[in-house]
Write a structure and sequence with these properties.
The chain has 7 helices and 4 strands, in the order H-E-E-H-E-E-H-H-H-H-H. It is mostly helical and 145 residues long. The chain has 3 domains: 43 residues, no CATH class; 41 residues, no CATH class; 49 residues, no CATH class. The strands form 2 sheets. A two-stranded antiparallel ribbon has the order 1-2. Strands 3-4 form a two-stranded antiparallel sheet. Helix 4 crosses helix 6.
Length: 145
């Protein structure tokens, strides 16, 4: 999912890759690799509900690995890889980015979006990086559709 998000948002593009004729492989440019690893790190550090608490994905992966080890050693008879399921919903679709970029300050004010929030979402919509639009702001922006 993170790889798709990187390409859909424009963070990665085919120009970020080069072909090596020696071994017939594509390689990723250094700066593009840094951008992608930053996005990947953000995803691994995002929270997820697991066993009644909010945990980071890296912690959940560690716990699932330990569960798998117990299962393989015969110390456990069941393993559950379905919980927690990753959320594959994005809040920064191309349509939303376009809507934000076309929005004027006066229109934002009429929707009840404050100056600083408007500045933030406009700045984020211009960047290639994925961003999160909070529920209340997303609801106000949905009124434009």
């Amino acid at each position: 999912m993170t790889t798709l998000e990187a390409f859909e948002s424009g963070m990665l593009d085919m120009k970020d890759f080069y072909f090596t004729g020696d071994d017939y492989r594509y390689r990723i440019e250094g700066e593009a690799k840094k951008r992608f690893l930053g996005l990947l790190e953000d995803r691994f550090n995002s929270g997820v509900k697991y066993k009644g608490k909010t945990r980071k994905w890296d912690t959940v992966i560690l716990n699932k690995t330990q569960e798998l080890a117990r299962f393989l050693l015969g110390k456990s008879e069941f393993i559950d890889f379905l919980d927690p399921a990753p959320s594959l919903v994005r809040s920064d679709s191309r349509e939303l980015r376009k809507r934000i970029l076309e929005l004027s300050a006066s229109e934002a004010r009429k929707l009840g979006i404050g100056k600083s929030t408007f500045h933030y979402v406009k700045k984020q919509a211009r960047s290639a990086r994925p961003f999160r639009v909070y529920r209340k702001v997303a609801e106000k922006l949905a009124q434009l559709a």
